[in-house]
């Protein structure tokens, strides 16, 4: 199915692989990432901290980096550095050896950063397209895209140019005055969706906090006698964020319990259980129902039309608002601009974030006029939200995602990928299900996915987990090529023995 590339293309690709040291300039900035040393500030021996000193070292020649490794590991590393990747000859469970540079960054992280993240054992310093590069010059096929963020891949030339252009004019001015990119972005989002108005924030959780507050305020205005419903309903396996309000709607107990009391008045119902959901909504206590049309963190579960339509009807009857959290599944990831489009069901509020500015922090709550009418000056706000820099980058991102044919390609690649994975992995006894929509794909296992994800990292493919840690989550950039999808599927297949090693 994939386009067999010409040898000229292969040569060009190989040039890219050695891009981190290349002195052979390519006129296309997308194909010519900066050398490693140019990513760091000018070395100043007296001022450099240890991280800077690693970034400032002479660029590592990938081949040389591989040569420093024990011979048993060279094949695997060179597989990361050269495409097409030669088929590994040994099971992919062999670990990469961490360089002194990587270990030093990890040690400083452990010393200076609050320990909220159990990180993958890799230090990324550069990215181009669907490739990431570590501090030693190794290349990784990025099937995570910054957790479904870099929709157009790393270093998209048009988004970069838009950001550079806006950076030169105005980066921040607050919401005290008007700024052009914010208004333009709101108009674009409204014109492309069910919504009438937008509120800009800086992240997914903040977009959901806005939705929570707007729902409360809407109900207060709709019930002037003081009997406004104030509670919320969400679903098992859902993820809506980590701030106290969004956290109260996030199902994972481990995320909530250490911080209780979180916002009171939230009820969780099994995702897809319409009858239970209706009972809760009909109680009359629910201000709004939060639901992801396709759950990401929770393990890649898609809603059915009947479920979303049933929620819509029950909310309409009870006067509750319906909020679609499309922070992860929205903006083209499912092959539709909005994940809910395929169901033909519309929300009152939709929250977006991750891919909207292709990596710059942004969040937005899109609302209907009936919701917006309840919100007045001073009801909500943010210093950074909707700044001109990020909004200008978001407009450039939208330009590409909305280009005719772009979303059809996402659908086509998603179907191809799922089929490939089914063919290559379907026979493995640990693989329970391969599911998803467009380029949000999950491989559910009957064992923890961690060892497989680690083995794939060693083999040069960067993946995420989801669900209860038993799902491999694949959310590559939407520009990923069929060839890259084939490479990912093949490496996952080759690394499956890591699951045996972990269960024996
Ligand atoms: C569906 C959904 N909602 C909200 C969030 C929170 O977004 P953020 O991490 O930007 O606060 C996430 C993050 O993964 C998400 O997947």
Automatic annotation (TrEMBL):
KW Amino-acid biosynthesis (keyword) present: yes
In the record, biological process GO terms are:
L-arginine biosynthetic process
Q: Which residues form a coiled coil?
A: none
- Give the EC number(s) listed in the UniProt record: 2.6.1.11
**This protein's GO CC annotations:** chloroplast stroma; mitochondrion
Q: What protein does this entry describe?
A: acetylornithine transaminase
Q: Where is this region: Disordered?
A: 19-45
């Amino acid at each position: 199915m994939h386009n067999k590339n010409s040898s000229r293309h292969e040569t060009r690709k190989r040039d890219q692989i050695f891009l981190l040291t290349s002195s052979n300039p390519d006129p296309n900035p997308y194909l010519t990432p900066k050398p490693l040393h140019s990513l760091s500030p000018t070395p100043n021996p007296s001022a450099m901290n240890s991280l800077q000193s690693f970034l400032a070292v002479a660029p590592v020649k990938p081949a040389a980096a591989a040569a420093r490794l024990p011979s048993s590991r060279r094949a695997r590393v060179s597989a990361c550095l050269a495409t097409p990747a030669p088929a590994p000859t040994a099971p992919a469970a062999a670990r990469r050896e961490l360089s002194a540079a990587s270990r030093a960054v990890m040690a400083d992280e452990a010393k200076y950063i609050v320990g909220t993240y159990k990180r993958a054992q890799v230090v990324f310093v550069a990215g181009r397209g669907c490739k990431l590069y570590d501090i030693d010059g190794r290349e990784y096929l990025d099937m995570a895209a910054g957790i479904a963020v870099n929709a157009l891949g790393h270093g998209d030339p048009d988004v970069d140019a838009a950001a550079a252009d806006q950076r030169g004019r105005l980066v921040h001015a607050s919401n005290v005055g008007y700024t052009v990119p914010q208004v333009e972005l709101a108009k674009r989002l409204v014109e492309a969706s069910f919504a009438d108005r937008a509120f800009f924030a800086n992240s997914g959780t903040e977009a959901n906090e806005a939705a929570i507050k707007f729902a409360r305020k809407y109900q207060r205005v709709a019930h002037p006698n003081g009997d406004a419903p104030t509670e919320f309903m969400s679903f098992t396996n859902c993820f809506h964020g980590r701030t106290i309000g969004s956290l109260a709607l996030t199902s994972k107990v481990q995320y909530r319990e250490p911080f209780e009391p979180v916002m009171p008045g939230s009820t969780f119902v099994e995702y897809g259980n319409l009858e239970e959901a209706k009972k809760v909504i009909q109680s009359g206590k629910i201000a709004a129902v939060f639901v992801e049309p396709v759950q990401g963190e929770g393990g890649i579960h898609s809603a059915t039309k009947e479920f979303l339509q049933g929620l819509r009807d029950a909310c309409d009857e009870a006067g509750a608002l319906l909020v679609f959290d499309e922070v992860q599944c929205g903006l083209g990831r499912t092959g539709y601009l909005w994940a809910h489009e395929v169901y033909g069901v519309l929300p009152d509020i939709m929250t977006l974030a991750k891919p909207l500015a292709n990596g710059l922090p942004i969040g937005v709550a899109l609302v209907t006029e009936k919701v917006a009418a309840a919100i007045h000056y001073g009801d909500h706000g943010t210093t950074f939200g909707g700044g001109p820099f990020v909004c200008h980058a978001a407009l450039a991102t939208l330009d590409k995602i909305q280009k005719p044919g772009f979303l059809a390609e996402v659908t086509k690649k998603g179907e191809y990928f799922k089929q490939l994975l089914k063919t290559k992995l379907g026979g493995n006894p640990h693989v329970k299900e391969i599911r998803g929509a467009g380029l949000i794909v999950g491989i559910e296992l009957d064992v923890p996915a961690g060892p497989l994800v680690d083995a794939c990292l060693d083999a040069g493919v960067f993946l995420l987990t989801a669900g209860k840690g038993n799902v491999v989550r694949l959310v590559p950039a939407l520009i990923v090529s069929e060839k890259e999808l084939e490479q990912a599927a093949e490496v996952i297949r080759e690394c499956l023995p890591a699951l045996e090693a972990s269960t024996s």
